[in-house]
Amino acid sequence: MGSNSILAGIGATVLAITLLVCGFAACCLPGTTAALAGAVSSGEDSPYTHEQLVELADVTRAFTVDSHRDAEAAAKELAASVVDAARAASAEGAPKAGEWSDAARRALDEGAAPLDAMEALAKVSDRYALDGAAVSHLEDCNALIVGSSSWLGMIGVAALIIAVLLGVQRQWAALAFMLRMGPALLVALLVVLGLWGLVDFNGLFAAFHSLFFVDGSWTFNYDSLLISMYPLDFWMGMGVVWLGVAVGLGLLCFAGGCVAAWRAQVQARQLAEQAAAATGKKGKKGKKSARK
User: Can you tell me where the transmembrane regions are (predicted)?
Assistant: First the structure.
């Protein structure tokens, strides 16, 4: 690879990161949340129905991962959705009406602003609404995701630029190294994390959160609204989606690397043939000079 070995090494590293980010991006899609919440958010231990939990999970996803021009307006929108669902779920004759206490119904004062109503409801129990700790954690997640998205996007662009540059320069061996080593690095990381998850998924989940959040700020009651929307099985499903997308794209890159490796072999053979032909011509010219 010569002088392009360093560039190929950098390219492999940023490609591995890009594949990982693409997997995470797939997890943030509305369809992913809807599908997983629809599969695992049963509502058995919740005062909300399964359908309401799925709808609230989608609204909460948007609050958590989407960029907001006005954070306060986004919080009000989230609170309004929770309060509307609470009023519907606690209404007389509703399927889960028996799960609602008189105190919870009193907290749903029709005249209260959504944020005030949700706060009052959460004080009765976090089964009914997102309390301040839950909203704060979601805001922390939003700041992390939105704040890092531009930097992660730049890493993806860097991977693309390096690949295009190596391709334009016909540095097929270097490009093959990048496209095959990047997925290999990703798989090595995923194997380690996968084994950890199989042995102790809760430990992996805790370690992942402790990298970005203060301890205690991301733990909630098992029957809280947040956990009812996103139970452990939801996050395990997210892990499968993340893994599937990242590895799938990695396989495509690896296939591209195999093509580049074949091009490198063809290129090397052509250069060798050209060198042999040039050597043969010099030999013939030498013989003719000797005869003269």
Answer: 151-172, 184-214, 234-262
Number of other CB atoms surrounding residue 272 within 10 Å: 10
The CA radius of gyration of the chain, in Å to the nearest whole number, is 28
Would 285 be classed as within a structural domain? no
Half-sphere exposure of 220 (CA within 13 A, CB side): 25
Would you say residue 30 lies in a domain? Answer: yes
Whether 225 contacts 127, CB under 8 Å: yes
- State the residue range of the domain holding 116: 2-279
Dihedral in degrees, nearest 10, Cα atoms 116, 34, 43, 98:
50
- Integer Cα distance of 245 and 242 in angstroms: 6
Look at the chain and report how many structural domains it folds into. 1
- Measured CA to CA, the distance from residue 105 to residue 121 in angstroms comes to 8
pLDDT digits (tens, 9 = 90+) for 181-232: 999 999 998 888 878 888 887 788 788 878 888 777 778 898 999 999 999 8
In a domain, 96, yes or no: yes
